[in-house]
């Protein structure tokens, strides 16, 4: 079986999102994601602003939490699957495994956020600016606690994988050597998606430690929301 077979399922999940055919939902989804990203930046200001963490923080915000940045990547993933045998020769196996974890997280984030966007459209005018109270009530109504905690567990798994597979000098060298070939076959977005993980890790002692510090606070927020706290996002 192809090492990229799991991408088929992820791509199919991505294609099933309703926002592709609904401009109003797409707009609300992006607004919900903008709110989430702003909240994450506010919650983790101290962690994200450490010099060694800034690149990984950017990777989190623009890659692992979905949003418009994922759409052109999905188009390239579909093309890549048509040439899976070539891609597997170009990209090292452990880089593929780690890239799949990252893409899976991005798709899961979009799935959960689309549910939020749909609920917001049901309960509020489409042009009403999203605020903390709207989001608090929406998250309680959707009861996504279990899925959000699963998302955080998958993030912790990614941190372990990044430390295990992406710190190898041989791996990094092999990955850099295939850059020209990746561009030749127009796999550059996929290559860059994985490559940004390499770059983001370089200043850090441990990606797993960074991600654990992030998920620790995020779990606290999930618990605050579903325990009925009035200001669950302020920790």
UniProtKB/TrEMBL annotation:
Q: What is this protein called?
A: DUF8198 domain-containing protein
Top-level taxon in the UniProt lineage: Bacteria
Say which species the protein is native to.
Acinetobacter defluvii
Stretches assigned to the DUF8198 domain: 17-232
Q: Which Pfam families match?
A: DUF8198
